Structure formats: C-alpha cells, structure tokens
Here is the input.
Amino acid sequence: MKKLLFTLGLIAVSASVFAQDNGAGAAAMGKAREKVSFSRDFLVIGFSYDGWASAPDSVQTKGLSRGFNIALMYDIPISKEHFSVAAGLGFSSSNIFLDDQYIDMSNGQSNAVKFVSSDKYKKYKVSTNYLEIPLEFRYRAVSDNANKGFKASIGAKVGMLVNAHTKGKNSLGGEKNIIKEQNKRFFNPWRFAGTARIGYGNFAVFGTVNLNPLFKDNTNLDVRPYSIGIALSGL
Here is the structure.
C-alpha cells in the first residue's frame, strides 16, 4: 500500500511539474507570438540603382551603378492609430560607374573636379559613403504591426561624408591591375536628401534624391545623386 501511495505521489508531482513547464512554455510562446505580431520598422535596409541627376552631357555613366543603405530607427506614435514619426542612425554607400572616363586626382592644388575621357580603365567607379541621421513621417494601415498591411513614409536625411574614393580596373603586363585613389577634396562634406518609401508588409520600394550638389560649389557641376530601389524592414 505504501509503495502504491508513493508511486501515485510521484506521478502527481511529475504531472504538476510537467503542467508548470507546459504553462511556462505556453507563456513564452505567447510572448514570442506577441513579439512577432508587433513591429514598427526599427530596422530598414535598402538596395538601389543609383544615378546622377543634372550631370552635364560631358559626364557619362554606364552599367549597373548601385547603392546600399541601412538605418536603425526609433519609431514614436503621434496618434492612437496609423501615424508616427521616426529618427535614427544610418549608413549609405553609392557606387557610380563612368563610361570611358576617370577623375583626374593628380592636381593637389585645386578642388575643382576634372573628368578625363579615356579608355585606360576597363571599369571605373566613384564611391561615396555617408554616416546619416534619417527622419521620417510614417503611415501604417496596421498601426501596431508594420509586418502587415500597406505603409508609406516621407522624410529627409542628413549625411556626413566619411569616405570618397575612385577605383579603376585594367590590365598591366597581362595581369589584372587595380588602382584605388581616396580623396574627399572634390566632394561636399555634407549631404541633404529627400526620401520616400511605399510598400506592403516587410517589402517596399523607395526613392532618395540629393537636395544639394555632390561636388563642392567651386566645381561648377550641379550633380544631384539619386537612388531607386527595394527596401526590407522589420523589428
């Protein structure tokens, strides 16, 4: 009899522990589901086709010029439903390929950029990288879950130029030769750009255009970079 009671007691204790574990597991799963169902697009990643608007006819680009940007943003609701503002910190990179041209970097006494027509490079690109502060006004059809439904945003960002370089590829003695020159003296140290994004769920299309010239005022080139691409967002 004692053995039977002991056995039944063990079974009861085991069942209780199992139920508690199941309850804790269910609670954890519930929290996980709640977390999955809550999103305000804290992380935004973009891949884009890049170009130079207002470039003179003497400056020719070619191929698939491309860009990348990423931003971690803090979303602040400004109404009970749908609308919010967001600000954060981001990074963007742009690579523009020139068509049988390169930038003459040899004149260290001048800040005026000079494009030279030449076929000395098989590929030649101009790269710029910025540390940015993006600001957005947002609309979401599903106010508490940016992973679902229609959403749109419009805004602006301020960028500080952290790196600018050119990279040319050709052949030397039958071997691949790469020449990379890093110099920021031709470029405006600050970037001011307008942004827009429209999408559904985690996917969107976006556009960005510079509000100020890429090159310094004394270059007489009013080149305004732009980007059109696909954005992934979440968290």
Observations:
- Confidence is low (pLDDT under 50) at residues 1-13, 15-19, 25-36.
- The first helix runs from residue 2 to 36.
- Helices lie at 2-36.
